[in-house]
C-alpha cells in the first residue's frame, strides 16, 4: 500500500486481500496506514499457504526501499491502484 507513486510504503499479509484493502482505505487497517493515508494498492502476491505468505512478507519488509520500488515498478510501473480490479 502507498499514498502516491514513490510514496510511503506499507507491507502486510492477509488471508482476505479485498477486505483488508477496504479496511485500509476506510482508515481502519492499521495506525500506520491511517496516519500516512496509504490507500493505494500497488503490488500484491497471492500465496496458497499463509506460512509462505508470512515468510515472504518478513523477507520483503527487511529489503531496502530501492528493492521494493523495483519490485513494484516491474509489475506496475505507473503505480496504478490495483484495488479497483479486486472482487
Structure description:
By secondary structure, this protein is mostly helical. Helix content is 44%, strand content 0%. The chain has helices at residues 17-25, 31-35, 50-62, 65-75. The relative contact order is 0.22. The model has no long low-confidence stretch (mean pLDDT 95).
Q: Please state the average pLDDT score.
A: 95
> How many individual β-strands?
0
> Judging from the principal axes of the Cα atoms, what is the shape?
globular
Count of helical regions: 4
Poorly predicted runs are none
Structural class: mainly alpha
Q: Terminal Cα separation, in Å?
A: 17 Å
What labels would you give this structure?
87 residues, single chain, mainly alpha, globular
Topology record:
Layout: H1 17-25, H2 31-35, H3 50-62, H4 65-75
Quick take:
The protein is mainly alpha-helical.
